[in-house]
Amino acid sequence: MENPIIYAENLTKEYTQGEVKIRALREVSLDIRLGEFVVIVGPSGSGKSTLLNLLGGMDVPTAGRVIYRGQDLNTLNESELTAYRRNEIGFVFQLYNLMSALTARENIELATELVPNPLPIDEVLAQMGLSERQEHFPSQLSGGEQQRVAIARALAKNPGLLLCDEPTGALDYETGIRILSQLRDLNEAYGTTVVIITHNLAVADMGDRVFRMRSGRIIEVRENPDPLPAERIVW
Q1: Does residue 8 form part of some domain?
Q2: Is 14 domain-assigned?
Q3: Residue 17 to residue 229: CA distance in whole angstroms
Q4: What is the pLDDT of residues 186-235, one digit of tens each?
Q5: Are 205 and 228 in contact (CB under 8 A)?
Q6: pLDDT in tens, 111-158
Q7: Which end of the chain, N or C, is surrounded by fewer C-beta atoms within 10 Å?
Q8: Does the pTM of the predicted model rise above 0.90?
Q9: 3-state class of 222 per DSSP?
Q10: CATH number, position 222
Q11: In terms of residue numbers, what domain contains 163?
Q12: Looking at the domain assignment, is residue 53 inside a domain?
């Protein structure tokens, strides 16, 4: 593996619903390299979100392990896992999860107060094209603007790994393309390792590498020597 920032070995995740055991992941192994822009694609129920939750320390595997910068997450206690999620991981969700009583800037400030080495808020606001909207509340922002605030909030923590769960799923096509373009810009400007999960196969064309999932397994890994810019993606 070439400079992996995080990798997984034989991850299995099982859930029990009544008397039924559901295996959401089946012995999944993958590595994500430092500074990569990775797309994990697959239909609903393929295990994408489960995998993202395990990489982000929001859940623990039934079997297998996740290694981040040489640290086995299975060996961390709850307070150490909390520190991992807070300091090392930036999460971006399909639903923006903004604090409605706080302005865009205050939402970002709230995240930066929790970490030791945040990025300058004004710099992040400018990077995301939000400087003129920073004093607006979420209810005064469009869906695309709210998603950009959510990305800015995650980025401002200066995370090692930015995990994005269907970041364009609730957006129209034009706004979705802009969000994808900005995620790639952040990857290039800051060297942030970005992982996007999506059911949209077209998004795969902009990844440095693409992992395709089905039924809880990775069924294909593809290197992409010439990733497309977001503006050239059509769906």
Answers
A1: no
A2: no
A3: 42
A4: 999 999 999 999 999 999 999 999 999 999 999 999 999 999 999 999 88
A5: yes
A6: 999 999 999 999 999 999 999 999 999 999 999 999 999 999 999 999
A7: N
A8: yes
A9: strand
A10: 3.40.50.300
A11: 32-59+78-232
A12: yes
